[in-house]
Design a protein that fits this description.
The protein has 553 residues and is of the alpha/beta class. It has helices spanning 11-17, 35-41, 65-70, 113-117, 130-219, 223-251, 263-278, 299-315, 385-395, 450-462, 473-482, 501-511, 542-552, and strands at 22-25, 30-33, 75-79, 87-95, 100-107, 259-262, 282-287, 294-297, 321-332, 336-338, 341-343, 346-355, 399-404, 410-420, 441-446, 465-470, 489-493, 517-521, 533-537.
Length: 553
């Protein structure tokens, strides 16, 4: 609009059509205003400058006369502080003849209740604009409120459904976790069941060696011969300890706990488990990579993979043959297709178990990793061995590949991502041997097995310890109270009648937090306690015990 189009507009008609109109001159003064604007806003001449009010809700700031003039014809919303919250909606027009910019508009509300709250009436709205806009807005608002209510109801229903589904999912994941643990434990126990006969054979050999060398040692005419027999007894004891330690670790019920290990070392550590499984009809050959590749996996889970695959290879050769266990590295610049998916580019540590059995036909091959699928006769297998292998490898970020042909054997390859050099295991050494044996200190020994207790007292006293030996935890507490808890170290069996080793350690540290406590265990020691407490698996040497004690000190 231009000033020429309303130059002859009678003032009364302008006031009646737009009771909230006003005009702004070049200095920003409001020089003319409609009756309702003057009535509600009061003395407008007290306003220093319209531009200082920042009254126009516009993306582009309008803070001078030129900018206001350029805004001509654009629909604007104006907020004047003297109107007490009433918003005005309309257009600015430049009146060149009078040198002002006029605002022609009406109040802007979205709720009829605002009419009474702001002291407005329908007469404040031009018939051709304001009320119609208001009614349209109110209808849109009512529709929006109805839509929002419906949406809110649906959101509430959806939230309740999501919460219910989330609870079901959590229960399902918990149930699946228990099933996975049961699956893994079932496979361990199946393997241990097959190991039993071989382990019994090995233990009988150890017992025969111990009793035989003990008899020969007692009847030896020369001290040198007796010492040689006793050394053989010590060696047999180490073999027995190695067998029990591996069985206990292998059978332990726990979740996968990854750590840095060497793949070739993991194979070597599993050999004592594999020999009894192969029976007399099969032979084991190792072809291990000289540069051991480091992987991140659960050591016992890797041992389970090796055992399951060797058992599978053995069963594929009922007439006997060779089982080859191989480790190697492979580096590729592109992905490689495996049975379990595309192996990404990079360097991989590969474990291979190869047999020269009957092989697998094309119809059976796709199903060999399915849980409970087996080609063995009823009662000869659960069908969980290879399913467990798949489960473990998948959770170790690895891949499985199978190469086979009927009549030409099978090679199953397990691909683990290489993580670097394997972590070096620190073993207890006899570095304490140069220390004088006399006066090591005062030790309280608690062991309920009399034969073990007598042997340990003799060894500890020969090693320089002053030993008080007891057989029960409550006896130890009474002795500690009489001696004012003043022992240099407490060595106790973990499993004791009444007060067990853990409780005894806790009671000791309540009174003397700096007293070292060594917990001995002939089975799975579990988690170590906090503070100056250490676990030591039986059997052990005096050098190993002293190393642990020095570490606590």
């Amino acid at each position: 609009m231009t000033g020429d189009r309303d130059a002859d507009l009678p003032p009364r008609l302008l006031d009646r059509a737009f009771p909230f109109h006003f005009a702004v001159d070049e200095r920003g003064r409001i020089v003319r205003a409609g009756p309702r604007l003057r009535e509600i806003g009061g003395a407008l001449d007290r306003i220093e400058s319209f531009f200082a009010l920042d009254a126009i809700d516009s993306p582009m700031p309008i803070r001078d006369f030129d900018a206001l003039r350029r805004a001509e014809g654009e629909l604007q919303v104006v907020r004047l502080p003297m109107l007490g919250g009433i918003l005005l909606r309309g257009e600015f027009m430049h009146d060149a003849e009078d040198g002002v910019v006029r605002f022609l508009g009406h109040p802007w509300i979205t709720d009829l209740s605002q009419l009474a709250d702001q002291g407005l009436g329908l007469g404040d709205f031009p018939v051709n604009a304001g009320v119609a806009d208001l009614l349209v807005l109110l209808q849109a608002r009512n529709n929006a409120v109805s839509d929002m209510r419906r949406l809110n109801g649906r959101l509430k229903e959806t939230s309740e459904e999501l919460a219910r589904r989330n609870d079901e999912l959590e229960r399902e994941l918990e149930h699946r976790g228990r099933l996975e643990e049961q699956l893994l434990q079932s496979q361990k126990m199946e393997a241990i069941g097959q190991l039993a006969s071989g382990v019994a054979h090995d233990f009988n050999n150890v017992l025969l060696a111990v009793s035989g060398h003990a008899t020969l040692g007692l009847s030896a005419d020369r001290i040198e011969d007796a010492i040689r027999h006793f050394e053989s007894i010590i060696e047999a004891g180490k073999r027995a300890a190695d067998i029990t330690a591996r069985l206990l670790v292998f059978a332990r019920r726990r979740r996968l706990q990854s750590e840095d290990i060497g793949l070739a070392d993991a194979v070597r550590d599993s050999v004592s488990l594999l020999d009894p499984l192969l029976e007399d009809r099969c032979t084991l050959e190792l072809d291990l990579d000289a540069g051991d590749a480091g992987i991140r996996a659960d050591p016992m889970a890797v041992a389970q993979v090796i055992v399951n695959l060797v058992m599978n290879a053995r069963d594929s050769m009922p007439k006997g043959g060779r089982v080859i266990v191989r480790t190697r590295r492979a580096t590729a610049d592109a992905s490689v297709a495996c049975t379990s998916g595309e192996r990404p580019a990079g360097t991989w540590a590969i474990l291979e178990i190869e047999d020269h059995g009957d092989g697998i036909d094309d119809a059976t091959l796709p199903r060999i990793f399915e849980p409970f699928f087996t080609t063995k006769d009823l009662g000869e297998g659960t069908g969980l061995g290879l399913a467990t292998v798949w489960w473990i490898v998948e959770r170790s970020d690895g891949f499985v590949d199978v190469k086979t042909a009927p009549g030409h054997g099978t090679t199953i390859s397990i691909h683990f991502p290489v993580t670097g050099d394997p972590a070096s295991s620190i073993k207890a050494s006899g570095g304490d041997g140069d220390r004088p044996r006399e006066g090591r200190g005062r030790m309280l020994l608690v062991e309920d097995d009399e034969l073990v207790r007598r042997a340990m007292v003799g060894l500890l006293e020969a090693d320089g310890w002053t030993v008080e030996a007891l057989e029960a935890g409550d006896q130890a507490i009474s002795m500690l109270e009489r001696m004012d808890w003043s022992y240099d170290v407490v060595v106790t069996d973990l499993s004791l009648p009444g007060v067990d080793g853990r409780e005894l350690a806790r009671r000791v540290h309540e009174r003397r937090s700096d007293t070292p406590v060594v917990l001995m265990s002939g089975s799975d020691p579990g988690e170590a306690m906090k503070g100056r407490t250490a676990m030591l698996a039986k059997p052990f040497t005096m050098a190993e015990l002293n190393t642990v004690i020095i570490g606590l000190l």
